[in-house]
Amino acid sequence: MAIRFENIKEFIGSRVVWDDRGDLFTPEAAAAIRAKVEERTVVVFPELNLTDDEQLQFTELMGERQRLTGRFNKQEVENDDVYQVTLDPKINPQPEYVLGTFFWHMDGITVDAPPPFATLLSCRIAPDKGGETEFASTYAAYEGLPDDEKADLEGLKAVHSVKASLSPIADAIPEKHRDKVLNIGLVKEHPLVWTHESGRKSMVIGTTADHVVGKSVPVGRALLIRLQEWAAQPAYSLRHKWTEGDFVIWDNTGAMHRAIPYEASTGRMMHRTSIAGSETVAA
């Protein structure tokens, strides 16, 4: 198998190198890439230039394809399993959920299904300024905590909601549909520490986490913000500056991500697919 991996940072990120582009589209390569995503959290394919059909094929080689698309998008793609991540008002007339991605989050935390295992993102238009994507490994961040702090987190649960994740931009949502936008999805309780079937542990944090069960709101929110800051420190995080054609896969069950803010006028366009998860969040 003529593909190789190069670590980007000590605790997070690998870059894929290939001799022949076709070598990536085999079950053997897909299994190796999936294993690397689980090990390194983020895997980058520089300037791979996938078509939508190739991205869908790649997604299916790695696992079960899951549709996570924007309910308001007027898509310009043939298959709605591909979601166009954009602030272009012709495609996305209600941009609030994309604007919410400017803040640390994990996908699928407020739905009644296992969170997606992985997200796959292709860059179609790279903005001149802004629009980079940052990733923070909540596996590595948990492993790096002192033992006494790990013990303090065991058994704690946080309450998650879309309303919490959009609170930083709530004032910018038009009043006529603000309540509808803020109240989609479910209110879910998840353990702060997710013990995976593999035995590894990650943290379930990000802006969907509103407060901690059994703690006062100020104390709980201060803890959640501190854990975000801990996970986002340079040792455990990675910023990817997009070039047109780049393709990135990350483990959504063990990472937060966010976009560096950009304006709609930059034209930034990403095509996203998702791989279904098989594990519910478990303590």
Automatic annotation (TrEMBL):
Family to which this protein belongs: Belongs to the TfdA dioxygenase family.
Molecular functions (GO terms): dioxygenase activity
The keyword Nucleotide-binding is assigned to this record: no
Annotated protein name in UniProt: TauD/TfdA family dioxygenase
UniProt key word Iron: yes
Pfam families per UniProt: TauD
Residues spanning the signal sequence: none
Protein keywords: Dioxygenase, Iron, Metal-binding, Oxidoreductase
This enzyme's EC code(s): 1.14.11.-
Enzyme class name: oxidoreductase
Species the sequence originates in: Novosphingobium anseongense
Domain TauD/TfdA-like: 23-273
